[in-house]
Amino acid sequence: MNLADTGLAPYAALDATSRGRPHSEPRHEYRGEFQRDRDRVLHSTAFRRLVYKTQVFVNHEGDMYRTRLTHSLEVAQIARTIARELHLNETLAEAICLAHDLGHTPFGHAGQDALNECTREYGGFEHNLQSLRVVDELEQRYADFPGLNLTYETREGILKHCSAKNARGLGELGVRFLERSQPGLEAQIANVADAIAYNHHDVDDGLRAGLLDLDELVEVGLFGELFSAVAAGYPAAPRKRQVSETVRRMIDTVVTDLLQTTRENLAELQAADIDGIRAAGRPMLSFSARIQGLHTELKQYLHGRLYRHHRVLRMTRKARRVVTELFAVYMEDPRLMPPEHAAMSERYSEQSGVAGTVRAVTDYIAGMTDRFAISEHRRLFDPLESP
Ligand code: MG
């Protein structure tokens, strides 16, 4: 047995049975395959840019809110706990989590929706697909191949959702979206850890920003249940500490429930290996019905209150305008992009006409951080600004 596989469940993703990389590479003398994947993600340019990309709050709104970088780290932390406890591949789960948001545009969902609208005629924009494109092609760091040349298992995890139309063009990786089979457990963990992380940190950030109302939140789902226990147990503690303690307990409660329910699912399935997990008709990672209900309730509450708060909506509208106008101006004249992107646009358009220009402009905009997009917009549209 490969050293990296020691102590793992038979249905974990194993170094020994990995489906390999797009470009074959010799094994490393002492680093495992998924360890190399994780390290490649960590050293990528796209990963560093996550620090200046919005999760919900635009980067310049304050230094204490989550960014896509801290979000990705929180997702990875939760996923590692789950993977370790279930004897799954912790390193692979971490690699997927660190990479899962690499394809996100500036300004969170507002930026993504805007870019999707701009490119609708040419197939639209999907951030999951863009994350895959970042690791498969856009990162240029290695002498032997484009992209990061990650293993199939990491790429499978990054591609969380995909439309059937796009899946058809993805070969082996797209098959599960057409056949509705499942990804490996590490990918399933990354998916659930993402939802756990943002549900809970959005409560925390939303309260801190004054966008959520504590009196209202104490009526909602798990927060309500646990906050009353904390407030009763620590009546003298400042509100902020009571809230942090509640959020901490919420994460612990849902993760513990997830582990319990998943263990039961796995015991029932009796998969012999990772392909047994892939062939199962349903995901193995799941909450009990009670926790699922509370989790959904919180999610819906955040949707109604936080993501549609008028301050968030005002920022959303500005973000949309920045992305839409940048897109239009680069499409009009791709030479306004930096020379390497302009050259890419020319190369792509020789192959596929306007669709090629759309591709190059989309890659350029999607790669921007919030603050770069804002200053680039200013340079291009404000006559007083130096171009
Ligand atoms: Mg995420």
What do these coordinates show?
The chain folds into 2 domains: 3-310, Hypothetical protein af1432, CATH 1.10.3210; 312-381, no CATH class. The model has no long low-confidence stretch (mean pLDDT 93). Helix 10 (185-208) runs antiparallel to helix 13 (239-269). The protein is mostly helical. The protein has helices at 33-42, 45-49, 68-85, 90-99, 108-118, 127-138, 152-158, 164-167, 175-179, 185-208, 214-217, 221-233, 239-269, 274-279, 289-305, 310-332, 339-352, 354-366, 370-381. Magnesium ion is lined by residues 71, 75, 100-101, 194.
The structure class reads mainly alpha
The CATH homologous superfamily of the largest domain is named Hypothetical protein af1432
Query: Percent range for helical residues?
Result: 55-70%
By DSSP, the count of extended strands is 0
Q: What's the architecture of the largest domain, going by CATH? A: Orthogonal Bundle
Count of DSSP H/I helices: 19
Q: How far apart, in Å, are the first and last alpha carbons?
A: 59 Å
| Gyration radius over CA | 22 Å
The helix/strand series, from N terminus to C terminus, equals: HHHHHHHHHHHHHHHHHHH
